[in-house]
Design a protein that fits this description.
It contains 16 helices and 9 strands. With 341 residues, it is an alpha/beta fold. The chain has one domain: TIM Barrel (Alpha-Beta Barrel), CATH 3.20.20. The structure holds coproporphyrinogen III.
């Protein structure tokens, strides 16, 4: 893997602290969701069928590289393959989102096992290998996982939620059982990350999508320590996406991560004040801006780059691209960054 000769490796250069002429750009959730080619596949295969078929994984992963020309590909999969591998039933219900087995008592935690990821998640590894073959070294491939806290939220809540109050209630009522489950998820995620690295990913991103629903005290107890364990074990360039975690940026800045992803509620200047100009930062355009006009998208994107500074910076959205984003608008966003000088 070390000898890969990637044609466009600008994002790897930035993650390794090298200078580049313009910031690299990609979009969280670029694989699937908004592209018409993906929407067509949706009517033919269920969500996990799409995730478990290496040819479909490769096809969906490469779509935004061909159609939108982002500087990196992100493997098509989901953070919820972890609960699936740990023995939970998980289904993706159209127009509703994920639905998981319900957990009603603390003893329900006892049934979870640390899976053999090489067996249970082999389909992800095969999808990565197929993608690398088909990608022909055009751009680096990003692998990912959810942070243990974010995965825990779905496992306890049983679905998506605005506040994940059932997950929080579980932490308050059963702190020891919560710790046990967070540890199980962490161990599984480290094995899973290692499997992805062995399969050839170039970059690893950890999505802490729901760290921001916790108070600082709870964040430092239920999310941060487990993120640290994973980052400490990661031996390739990595990015931590820390949505809503503005209160803990100082602590996050001490992690051995190559880049910190932030959402649009954090102002670029505020982030730079705390993280410094040497730290690689990724983000943070409000995804809804891509629903506006081309000229507005251009201006908002250029303003953002100027505010972050074009060095040690990866352009991205502050969260996933919205499913109703017009393809032309996503292209405008990418083109604007590529034309930055
Ligand atoms: O970035 C990428 O494009 C790679 C693929 C990817 C998916 N999910 C595919 C997907 C990634 C990185 C994820 C991560 C993910 N999944 C997160 C963390 C990032 C975030 O957005 O906060 C979370 C919280 C999930 C859980 C999840 N998966 C939800 C809540 C949903 C339903 C809502 C939605 O996003 O559409 C999913 C389904 C899902 N995962 C889809 C895709 C393309 C849509 C499924 C469909 O085709 O109907």
């Amino acid at each position: 893997m070390k000898n890969k000769n990637i044609k466009n490796d600008i994002i790897l250069k930035v993650l390794n602290g090298q200078r580049v002429d313009r910031p690299p750009v990609w979009m969280m959730r670029q694989a699937g969701r908004f592209l018409p080619g993906y929407r067509k596949l949706r009517s033919e295969f269920s969500f996990f069928e799409r995730c478990q078929n290496p040819n479909l994984v490769s096809k969906i992963t490469i779509m935004p590289i061909n159609d939108i020309k982002t500087d990196a590909a992100i493997i098509f999969s989901d953070i919820l393959v972890i609960p699936l591998a740990m023995g939970m039933n998980v289904s993706m219900i159209p127009d509703f989102g994920p639905k998981l087995d319900s957990i009603n008592k603390k003893e329900d935690i006892d049934k979870f096992i640390i899976p053999d990821v090489n067996k249970k998640l082999n389909y992800v590894f095969e999808g990565i290998k197929q993608t690398i073959t088909d990608l022909e070294n055009k751009v680096p491939l990003i692998g990912f996982a959810g942070s243990p806290w974010t995965v825990f939220c779905y496992m306890i809540q049983g679905s998506g939620s605005k506040d994940f109050s059932k997950a929080k209630e579980f932490c308050l009522n059963y702190p020891n059982y919560s710790k046990k489950l967070l540890e199980l998820i962490t161990i599984t995620t480290i094995d899973y990350m290692r499997g992805q690295i062995k399969s050839g990913i170039d970059i690893f991103q950890l999505f802490d999508s729901w760290g921001g629903i916790l108070s600082k005290k709870d964040y430092l107890k239920f999310s941060f320590p487990y993120i640290k364990m994973i980052i400490d074990q990661c031996n390739i360039p990595n990015i931590l996406f820390a949505k809503g975690c503005w209160h803990s940026l100082r602590e996050i800045n001490k992690l051995k991560t190559n880049a910190i992803g932030i959402d649009w509620l954090i102002e670029p200047k505020y982030a730079r004040n705390i993280l410094g100009y040497d730290r690689v930062v990724q983000g943070n355009l409000d995804p809804s801006y891509l629903l506006s006009s081309k000229s507005k998208i251009k201006k908002l994107t250029l303003d953002m780059i100027n505010e972050f500074g074009s060095k040690n910076y990866i352009v991205n959205l502050g969260h996933g691209i919205l499913p109703n984003t017009p393809v032309e608008n996503a292209k405008t966003f990418i083109k604007t960054v590529k034309g930055y000088s």
